[in-house]
Amino acid sequence: MDAGALIKKAKEYLSPEKVALVEAAYEFALNAHKGQVRKSGDPYLDHPLQAAMILADLQLDAATLAAALLHDVPEDCEVPLSKIEAKFGPEVSRLVDGTTKLGKLSLRRGEASKRESQSQNLRKMLIATAEDLRVVFIKLADRLHNMHTLGVLSPEKRRSIARETLDIYAPLAHRLGIWQIKWQLEDLSFRYLEPRQYHKVARLIATRRPQREAFINEITEILKQELDKAEIKTEIIGRPKHIYSIYNKLNRYAAQGRDFDDIHDLFAVRLLVNTIPDCYKALGVIHNLWHPIPEEFNDFIANPKDNGYQSLHTTVLCQGTTPLEIQIRTYDMHRTAGFGVAAHWHYKEGAGQDTRFEDKIAWLRQLIEWQSELGSEEFLESLKTEVFIDQVFVYTPQGEIKALPKGATPLDFAYRIHTELGHRCIGAKVNGRLVPLNYELKNSEIIEIRTTKVNKGPSLDWLNPDLGFVKTSHAREKVRQWFKKQERTQNIERGRQILERELKRLDIAMTNIEETAQLFNCESSDDFLAAIGYGGITPHQLALKLAIEPEEIPAVTRTVRTERITTAGIQVLGVGDLLTQLARCCNPLPGDHIIGYITRSQGITVHRKGCINATNVEDKSRLIEVSWGEIHDVYPVDVQIDAWDRVGLLRDITTVVAEAKVNISSMSTTDHNDITSVFATVEITNMVQLTQVLSRIQGVRGVISATRVSQAKASLSS
Asked: What is the mean pLDDT of residues 632-660?
C-alpha cells in the first residue's frame, strides 16, 4: 500500500496545510523504516500506513494521522523522540510517546515479567490517554491492523495476543463507543481463540443468508411504502450480525433451553432519519404495522448508554411469527454509534479538545487515581473487572447515586463509600430487604450497609473469587491491605492452615514447600505462607500452580472420542491415539501429574503420580511417562461433603454444582449423629474447575468440608 489512498482520504476533510503535515510524516516514516519487513514479508511501512488509514476513516485530525505513521519509529528505528519533536512539534511527539512501549532492556525474563510488562505498558498508555484521548485511538488502530495480520505468528503468540485483545482492547473500544473497531477486534480474537466455534457459527449464519436476505428485502419494501405515506424521509439498511456477538447469544440461549432459531435479531434492519421526532414517528408507524414484543423494546435516545450510544430498539412479529429487530436513529446518532467519542473529537486550530466529552473519560481518570495503589496483577484485574464491563447505578439511603461494575456486591458498594465501612460490614439491605453479601446489585436499588461496632475486620473468604463476595479490584485491594498489616507470625500461621486445607481438599501431596514458594516468586517458605495468610495468594491461584501449568500441556493434532468420559488427548511419550484408560482407584484429572502403567491386555492405565497402586507396583519397568494433551472431555472426580444435616441440604448442594455448569453422575449419603456425609461423582474438565466447585459447595449453609477423595481399589489391571 502506498500513501495515495491515505492522502486522498485526508484531503476529503483536512485543509491543504494539514494534509502537508501527514505527507511529511509519511516521508519521514518511509526513510526510517527503509529495508524493514514484517514477519509476513510485507514492507514494514504497510503497518503504520494501514493504522493511519483506519484513523482517517474516523476523520481524525492531522496530528493523529501523523503520529500513527510515526508510532513505531522510536521503538523499531532507534530514532529519539527529540528528533520527532523538532520536526513535527510537541503535539505529535506527545502522541507518539503515548503509544510507544516501555524500554525492553529493563524487563526481567519469564512469564511473570511478561505480565508485568503488559501491565506497565497498558498503564503508560492509559495515563497518556487520560491527558489526550487520541493516544488510545492510535493504539486501537495499531492493534486492529495487527489482528488482521496475526496469521503469520506462532499459535501460542496468536492466542496470547488474541486473549489480550479480547480482554482489554475490544472492551476499551466498546467503552469509548467505537463499534466499528470493537466488532472487528472481537471477531478476529474469537477466530484465533476458538477456531472451531468461530467457523461453526459462521456456517450457521451462511446457511441462512439467502433466506434472510429475501425476507429483509421484502420487509424493507413494505416498510418504505408505509413511511413514505407518513411523509418520513428515511434510509433503510440491513444490519449485519457479527460472529462473536451471535456466539455469546447462542451460549445465553442454550442456558435457557433455546437455540439458534430463537435469536430475534438475526433478522434486523436499521432506519436512519433526520431528526429525533422522526425517530418516534417512525416507531409509531412500525408498531401500527406489526405487533411489537413489549420486553424487547429499549429507548436509548431518552436513556443513552454510558458510552454515548443512542437509538430506539424494537422487535416486532412480521409475517405471522417471524421476529424482526428494528433500530431507529438519526444520522448523527449513527455516526456516534460507529465511531463513538471519535465521531466528535475534533482538534481545530486554537480550539483545543471539546469539553463536552470530558465525561466520556471520567472512568479513566478514576482508574488513574487508583492505579498507584495497585500492583501489576491487580492493575490488569482492575481493567477487566471495573473499567471494561457494563455498569450498574445504585443509591445510598441518602439518595446519592454510585456507579459500580455490573456484578458488584454490597461489599463492593461499602468499600466504594469508605474503607472502614467495608471492614466493619456484617450485612446489607437492598430496598429494605436483607440480602447475602455476595448478592449482585441491580440498577436503581437502594443499598444500606449494616456494620459492627467491634473492630472485627474483613473475612479472608472475601478474597476467594469462587465465593463472589467482592468483584472490584478496589475492594479486593483494601481487604488485602488489612490482612497485610496484621502480625507476620499470624499471617504465616493463617497461611499454613489455608495451604493444608487446600491440599487436603484437592487431595494433592506437596513434597517441597520451598519449590512451591519459588513458583510464586517468593524468596522463602515464610514469605509464601505469609502471602497466603494476607490474601496475596488465593486458594484459586494455589490450585492453578499446584496443578500442571497450562503452557506445559502439549497440543495434539487429532483426538478420538469413544464415549462422553474418555482419555482422548492423553499422550504417551509425546504420541496420542494409543489405547489408554483412567484408573478408577485415583481418578486422575487434567492438571494432576500423571503416570502410565502398561497392562498386558488393556493398553495403558493412567494413574495420578503418588497413587498408592502405582507407587507400590513390583515391575517398575512397566511404568511410562504420559501427559495431558488437548482437553475436550469431562472426567469423573469423587468428592466427599460433610455437613450438618438439615432440610434442603442436598437441594442446595446440587443447585450450586449446577450453577457451575457441572454434572453430577452419582450421589449417595450416610448419616452419623447430626452429620451427613455426601459422596458424589462430578464430571470435571480440569483442576481449576474442581477447586471452583469445591469452593462453592463449601459456601453452602451447614457444609463443614468439601474434599476430593480417591476410591479404595487395590490392584492394577494385568
From this structure: 85
Is residue 718 a part of any domain in this protein?
A: no
Do both 183 and 207 map to the same domain? no
Evaluate whether residue 74 is within a structural domain: yes
In terms of domains, do 114 and 82 share one? yes
Q: How far apart are CA 311 and CA 332, in angstroms?
A: 11
Do residues 200 and 152 share a domain? no
Say whether 699 sits in a helix, a strand or coil: coil
What is the SS3 assignment for 39?
A: coil
d(CA 411, CA 429): 11
Q: Residue 536: which domain range?
A: 486-546
| pLDDT computed for residue 699 by the predictor | 82
* Phi (first) and psi of residue 402, to 5 degrees: -130, 135
The highest-confidence range among 28-37, 497-506, 586-595, by mean pLDDT, is 28-37
CA distances to 107, 211, 372, 681 from 110, rounded to whole Å, are 9, 52, 24, 38
Of 660, 167, 159, nearest to 381 by C-alpha is 167
Give which of 621, 620, 624, 619 is closest to 607, Cα–Cα.
624
CA proximity to 51, closest of 175, 134, 158: 134
Active-site residue numbers?
Answer: 75-76
- Rounded distance between C-alpha atoms, residue 60 and residue 347, angstroms: 8
Between these two residues, 604 and 26, which has the higher pLDDT value? 26
Do 331 and 245 fall within a single domain? yes
Separation in Å, CA 98 to CA 66, 115, 125: 14, 20, 6
Residue 124 lies in a domain: yes
**CA of 361: how far to CAs of 49, 101, 319, 454, 685, in Å?**
28, 22, 44, 40, 40
Q: What is the largest CA-CA distance in the chain?
A: 91
Distance (Å, rounded) from C-alpha 569 to C-alpha 575? 9
- Residue 546, pLDDT score: 65
Give the integer Cα–Cα distance in Å for 387 and 371.
12
Strand partners, 269: 238, 326
pTM of model > 0.70: no
Average model confidence (pLDDT) across the chain = 78
Name the residue with cell 466529552.
Answer: 357
**Is residue 259 classed exposed, middle or buried when 0-12, 13-18 and 19+ CB atoms within 10 A define those classes?**
exposed
Count the alpha carbons within 13 Å of 98 in the hemisphere toward its beta carbon: 25
Q: Helix, strand, or coil here: 458?
A: coil
pLDDT in tens, 164-188: 888 888 888 887 778 888 889 999 9
Q: What is the pLDDT of residues 652-682, one digit of tens each?
A: 898 888 888 888 888 888 988 888 999 998 8
Q: Could you read off the pLDDT of 446-467 as tens digits, one per residue?
A: 999 999 887 778 888 888 877 8
487 pLDDT higher than 60 = yes
Task: Please state the domain count of the chain.
Answer: 6
Torsion over CA: 549, 684, 384, 242 (sign): positive
Residue 162: how many other CB atoms lie within 10 Å:
21
- Residue 64's contacts (CB-CB under 8 Å, 6 or more residues apart) are 55, 95, 134, 137, 138, 347
Three-class SS state of 268: strand
Amino acid identity for residue 454 in this structure: V
Tens digit of pLDDT for each residue in 539-567?
767 766 665 433 333 333 223 333 334 45
